[in-house]
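Is iron/sulfur cluster placement plausible here? Inputs below.
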Amino acid sequence: MRIVVARNTGFCMGVERALEAVLEREKRSDSGIMTYGPIIHNPQVVELLKSRGIRASRDPADFEGAGSGFISAHGVSPGVRERLKATRARIFDASCPDVVKVQAKIKKFAARGYSTVIFGDRGHSEVEGLLGFAEGRGHVISSAAEALDLPPMEKVCLVSQTTQNREEFEDIIRKIGSKFRDLVVFDTICPSTSSRQDELKRVAAQVEAMVVVGGRNSANTARLARLAASLGLVVIPVESAAELDPEKLKRFRAVGVVGGASTPEWVIQEVVNRLFASCGGRFGRWFHRLLSFLAGSGIYPGLGMGALTYAAAVTLGAGARAASALAGMFLAVEYFAARRLADIARPGSGAVERKGIPLPAVLGAVSAAGVFVSLAAVGRPAWGAAAALLPPAAILAAGRWRPLAFPAGSPLALPAVRESVKAGAIAGVAALIPAIASPPASLKMIGGVFALIFLIVFNRSTLLALPMAQKDRFMGWRTLPVTMGPKNAVITVLLLNSFVVGVILLLGGLAAPTLGLWLAPAAYVYALALQQLFQQRRIYPLPVFQALIDGQFVIAGLAAFLFGR
Ligand code: SF4
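Reply from A.M.:
I modeled the complex. Tokens:
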């Protein structure tokens, strides 16, 4: 089965902006946060917010005890705003700018004596808010038929709820164009809604069924489902991947996936992943299983680590390259096994293994022996024993001292700390193993190789964090895409690459500068190209994208093998 994923999924601008404002406030304030109605119409996100103590209510009295109160992206009427402001809570306005523009138009024309007609859903919070600007002369219609039943009015201002269907709105304009003597019309369907509807039509032309992902209480998701049905497609509405029934989908040759404006990107990715794993044809299923095994067992990351260590050995001009690569590979597999064992031992983690000796225990023991033998074979048994103890020691230390989860407000809770710690650990291992296996290497050279490998891993982490930025924000991770936005993160990493490569060139800190300097920027260009293909939905699902990105480590090792001295 072919899977076609819409390109513009994830939160719309207004929802993203409102959520960011609430989460930023939560970091700074320890008194409660209330939102006027759900800040977003999505059950997963509402649950996450609840777990962080952010509650929703439409009763201004509930705001009395809260430190901060938020108006959601849908906006509120002037009356509600006044009532909220009269509470003891500090009120923040997260109304979407596109909604505010509609409010302003209604207000302006109401002041000139116009009656307002809103094409929208009765009772929806945005429509309720808009009605509040109509000075008591507002009407809501939800179809062209209702438009014909409107009472006689002198002057009419016609607008649409921002998430309505464009064709239906145009039909209404045609039908009532001559009904009122003085009619002003504003197309107030927002650009995000229009582009989602256009994208749905593009996907619809290629598929037989459409999976529409979003909250059941999300009006714009429901509208996307209606639009897909009107185009003759079988519609499968789901809130999450768990609701997908792959059996029902197997009869289709091609299935599309679209998401509402309030559906998080990570939920879309989970749905696509599940579709691929269960309906992606025999090859797709087999490939998915193999990939999950190789990634989950640490074998694939181990291959990458081995290749990176080999590239480091070549760049250092060190001998014993095969032994270094093997030690690096086994060390990574051992680390993954130790981490998996720690997860299994931790109550409530949900990690389970089959009965008998767990696979991670076997992999851990074999790879620890592999680390020792690889270094002992080149005359470094003591270093081999010490290196074999490193992964369990690192896991134990992380259990007590959590270096990757500094609390908000801590001076160490800086952007990209997580990526930097990971890149530093990998670069340290990759640069030191060859130096241990085949000394002597100058400190300047080790530093140069460390900086290059650090760059490659840091680049990779930043690009992998791009599609996960929405989830990372909820988890409190301060990755570069979360703190500075995706575009700025990519530019910053490019500048960092140029700076580090420049410094290495100046200091002459590499034995094989041509190859070494080529590795980091080339790996970045490769990963950037993959990122573009992933965004254009030419590569999916997420685990395949991640595996391809990690392939840059193997490519670096191969390049070192083929072209290194
Ligand atoms: Fe704003 Fe459009 Fe999103 Fe509504 S759907 S919150 S108007 S961007």
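Short version: The first strand starts at residue 2 and ends at 5.
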